[in-house]
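Entry 12.
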Amino acid sequence: MSASEKNMNWQEANQSYLSAALASVRALLERHAESPRSGRREAKEDKKLQQSLQEASADMPAPAALETLCQKFGLSSFERNVLLLCAGMELEASFAALCMEASGDPQRPYPTFSLALAALPEAYWSAITPAATLRRWRLIDVGAGESLTLSPLRIDERILHYLAGTPHLDDRLAELTEPVHSPMTLLPSQQKIADQLAKAWKDATKISELPVVQLCGEEVSGKRAIAAAGCAQLGFILRSMPARVLPTAPSELEAFIRLWEREAALYQSALLLDCEEVDLSDVARRGAINRALDGLVCPMIVMSHERRFTLQRKVLAFDVPRPTATEQRNLWKSMLGAAAPVLNGHVEAMASQFSLSAQTIQSICAEAMAKLDESGPKIDPNDPPFSVLDPKFPASLWEACRQYTRPRLENLAQHLEPVVDWDDLVLPEQQIRTLHEVAAHVRQRAKVYETWGFVNKGTRGLGISVLFAGASGTGKTMAAEVLAKQLRLDLYRIDLSQVVNKYIGETEKNLRRVFDAAEEGGAILLFDEAEALFGKRSEVKDSHDRYANIEIGYLLQRMEAYRGLAILTTNMKQALDSAFMRRIRFIVQFPFPDAGQRAEIWRRIFPPATPTEGMDINKLAQLNVPGGNIRNIALNAAFLAADANEPVRMPHILRAARSEYGKMEKSLTDAEVRGWVG
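Predicted 3D structure (tokens):
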């Protein structure tokens, strides 16, 4: 028999059992409404009803929902009948008339505590108090009325659906939480943590002794996968809730705690409290989180970047690292099947450059293989030889990685789209050679660090940082664009005006957002005018000096740990803190271009489609300005020529040069423009 058939049999049997239980309560109401009958007749009826209930119970392939609920919440016989009395109002039309007749009041066609105390056996007053089971767990609700005992009673909708055998999450919880599904694949390091989580909960002798599990680190999707896999081992249903929607008002928070504990008891549910984006400096929010973690007696998991919760109950914390390059490489090969060996090293390159979660790699591979099927004959990637391979396939995989990991830096950075190449860069040979070395370090870091074992000698100093020093306009930003284009990586220029914040702790928070967002895709970070952020630490004279030094210390740590390429540019090299200088792997000095270099810049400055006439490169090279200003002059001259409907000539450039020099508050010298215009 299939699982669906078994469930159908249980559903039918559960309905029969619930009907038999309701018949017993209906008989009690009828008996109370009628004049007293002989004890012999009542005993005969009771025996018949009990026999019917026993027969329904014998047909159950698993315990009925009613009995499971009574067992989980420890309901007494009286409480059980009160619950059935309220359920009968929703499930059988006859109960309203019976309640009216049994209470002797035509204005009350509904259950009340007064009716229950009078009509149901083994009644006791304390069962109707707020602290008793029925009201504490919100199995029933008390409506508005003239008094407690005469107010209408109604079964909670979630409990009604449960008794009927129909799973339906409480709407109040469904609005706040979402399901977390068990992943298809867990990396070995993640599986180890999931196993430890499951074992810790399995070893607890009772639910109140379950430790709160805290999953720390930047690998958000990995933490969710670990939580889901650990819960799946124990048969727990996991739902996630953002901490920002957790109620902060005490009464609302207590109501949520009761509702979730009820859900956890009914369906073996576990709660994953997501504190990734919550502002823990908010005292009320932090207090609500601590109260929930301490007060919820159920399986609890909390996700956060750091271990920042101090609880009264036991906490079991795990640091969840990003997948290693080896784990990523193995997963790429597994998901790509027979396509992996013919990618000629591209798998190794992707594992080296991108720090991807298992879920992201699975998604990229699934989409890529689907596109292969669409573009050619249907193939099985696990059936070698994998001969039908689109030559663009490796490049499309790389671009998919970039798209999936493109950082969301909001207003903290500007995405630069590189359009220049090595041919556009005019620098001395030594500087060009150093830039090629930088690119080689980025490409080969996985081989050197992991395959060749340098990472085993220590993890400090593995970040690749470069300082571009030189006057404005000498090509520092252009060089960063050239590297980004060659390495096929995203380039982000950090807006220091948005990162640096006068409020204590905000600068570090912004820096963390920058590095965390860029980490996954190994983006190139460009810190223009770096002396504003990387300046020398000062002697501590007050709290402002102390916190400024803390910011620099934090930045030093992140620079060392950042697995991507970080480029700093400055025209005030002497203003940088010496600690940064020690940690920078490459320093490239961008000199002011000499006449020969300026001539070369002028030769390359105009696009092929731009009409020019009478250009004298040697005379143009007399302008004593760097490449950035040369570009401005050339662009302005092009607009002047276009407006005159002429090709770009020396007079246009002369007018543009005078304008550019005016911006710099300089004057053109006779030596610079000698012989330009006859």
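Annotation: The chain has 28 helices and 14 strands. The radius of gyration is 37 Å.
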